Amino acid sequence: MSLINAKAVFTQLKNDLIGKDSYRGVTLTYAWLANQFGHFALGFIPAIVVYNLIREKPGIHYPELWAALGVWAVWILFELYNFLGPLVRLPSGKKELNNPDYSFPPAWANVAFDTVTDLFYFGIGALTASIVCCYSASVSQIIIGMIVLVTWPAYYWYTTKMYIQYAEYPFQLRLSQWKQPISETNKKAVLNYIKNEENGKHLLLFGSKGSGKTTLAVGLSTEISINRGCCSYITAVKLLSLFYERDEHPDVTFNMLWNWRKSSLLVIDDINPGNPIKGDILSTAIFYDILDNPVFGPDNIKHIREKNIVWVMGTEDPAVQLEENWQTLLQRIGISKENITTINLDNH
């Protein structure tokens, strides 16, 4: 379900371009625009400088082109190093689990697409400098063609930042940046959950303090956001208060395109703190009583049952049977056992 349409993009673009970031804060979309302007400038300014250094040199014809293409070539080599460096350093034949650099492999195709997009902006900047130094109709046509070609990547990356931005994650993290130990079984369960296209799939994520359960949940959800999923991050305490709110249909605003009910994936964090704190602070009984309140209970249960949810739990304590209690709660809501996956990060 996609809630980002042309109207939403235009509204976000207007919010990014009009107003001062000193009082409104810097959004991910604004940062992306600034980043691409920086790439343009890093092509444009050095090309101007190099042109002025070589234009009087004897035997150099079309110094504006040499300057532009030379600067662009330097940035191409730099970006190739950035992209290929991690690939070259990967130990050949090693399993990903034993690779100290990655618990989960990066999405190399996505990284390559990002690299190519950046190179287009470097090139547009450098070639624009060349026509400023010495106008050429043919170079102008090339620039126009490059701008046309980069239009769709620009739309893709800008809207991708919107998907991540409106999820309201507490920090930015891709799954490949999560570098905690994890078993092959749990790793496979995470990757299968990301690839899942069905609704009503629930992932119970257990782990003690420092095991990386919150960062794993954010990294997992970020990958789904990048794949155009409408995700939402929320703490358990905040969600409990929202169980008493109506199912509103939020208009496009600077802060929200969808609420937790409209999201395709919900990450519920801080349900219980985990080791060294023992016990079940937010019990299943309390959670269910608030969920099934007299006014909004049926609607709350419907959304919890039909939505994909990552439940970030505490340590699985056999003494209190935490995993069994929450599985029982989910089944009481109407979620079948085969739609519940459990991962314990303390078992690796």
TrEMBL record:
Record has Transmembrane helix as a keyword: yes
Q: What's the protein called, per UniProt?
A: IstB-like ATP binding protein
Keywords associated with the record: Membrane, Transmembrane, Transmembrane helix
Record's InterPro entries?
Answer: P-loop_NTPase
According to its UniProt entry, this protein's organism is Pedobacter duraquae
Segments traversing the membrane: 30-53, 65-84, 119-152
What domain of life?
Bacteria
